[in-house]
Amino acid sequence: MGVKNDGGLPKEAKKILQSLASAWDDVIDSSTLEVIPIKGAMTNAVFQVNWSTEKGKLPQKVLLRIYGEGVEVFFDRSDEIRTFECMSKHGQGPRLLGRFPNGRVEEFIHARTLSACDLRDPEISALIAIKLKEFHDLHMPGPKNVILWNRLRNWLSASKRLCSPDEAKAFRLDAIELEISLLEKELSGENQNVGFCHNDLQYGNIMIDEETRSITIIDYEYSCYNPVAFDLANHFCEMAADYHTETPHVLDYDKYPGLEERQRFVRAYLSSSGNEPSNVVVQQMVEDAEKYTLASHLFWGLWGIISEKVNEIDFEYMEYARQRFQQYWSSKSVLLENSKDVAEDGISGCALGLMVAWWTDFGRWQARLGSAALILGIVGNICIAFLFFPVARGSSVSQLIGLTSECSVKYQIWLGHIVMTLFTAHDLCYIVYLATTDRISELTDHTI
């Protein structure tokens, strides 16, 4: 629903809007405008502004973007403006119509913003892949260095500064520095393909002209030079999101694209240059992108923490961050086969491997250890109650079934070993479970 006035808008924005509307001959009244909030924006507040025109003509429209409070911690706004202007010159996005201290007015693109389900449409997905390759091949001014790792470290520092001690502990921020170094070591290489990346290719930043089927990529706040596999990874991860539900922060990784879908996207991406890629080349890029999903999870996990502290947009940023970090820890060991070889500080490889494995599977296995301890204890007690004592030598049950004294002894010895093994496994699982949940006092009581 739109608002039929400009109340609440910054006065500098009102002046620009008034100036623009006055320059259009078909606008009936430049002071009467309709302001429509656009849902799904999580960094800035975005509005569609409409003016009624003479009968038979379509209304005049612009896009008004008001920058989010404190979001300069994520990127340099002057760099973002230069990128926006450069993209406009390349014909890649909307024109800049005006700027004011905390926002700008942009050309309104007469195209449809994609929805979450559009990303799964094979035709639209192929068009996105082709457009993304064109985006990556742009020659933008400035250095062509990879920004990802320094940006992650800067965001980590900001997260630590903004978080309470309890929040920092819950998100395990002290461990993230090592993880960033690990990923940089594992994923960087001389042969990696670096291009100008969007770094936020969610469906809300992609538009399609229904008539021409042309794709436009918008919103370049996070754009910079990075490994193109990271941009692909970001796009794949965004398929788990739908920001237009009642719970826009909730991610569903069951919707993450399967292997065939990712291969199809990569093949369309590589084929857009005019050469048909081999299956080996396609698979290599798919695997590279899959590994870079780890960097994506850290990237947006840290973003969520900072956004909760500096942004007033109604969004559950902390819960979003928790999901991204959880996905990182649960998938790291699968995606990084050599993740145990992460340090060269004198710690033995064996001990370090155990430590990394423990940290890697922490979130996924912690609950299972508690459940396993409970189940093992129950099974052990059942064995004693229903299998051990009833067939003891001389018992009524052993006499009833005709079990000889010699067989009864062998049976008890054999079952005794099983019961001992069950309770030993129970104790080990329980001790590790207590240790990993910081319940040291209970661990001491248990071992005593």
Automatic annotation (TrEMBL):
List the transmembrane segments.
372-391, 411-433
Question: CDD domains from the xrefs?
Answer: ETNK_euk
Single GO cellular component annotation? cytoplasm
A Pfam family matched by this chain, by name? Choline_kinase
Q: Which UniProt keywords are given for this protein, alphabetically ordered?
A: Membrane, Transmembrane, Transmembrane helix
* The keyword Nucleotide-binding is assigned to this record: no
**Gene3D superfamilies assigned to the protein according to its UniProt record, in alphabetical order:** 3.90.1200.10, Phosphorylase Kinase, domain 1
In this entry, which stretches build a coiled coil? none
Q: List, in alphabetical order, the GO biological process terms annotated in this UniProt record.
A: phosphatidylethanolamine biosynthetic process
Q: What is this protein called?
A: Choline kinase
Q: Which organism is it from?
A: Coptis chinensis
Task: Supply the source organism's classification.
Answer: Eukaryota, Viridiplantae, Streptophyta, Embryophyta, Tracheophyta
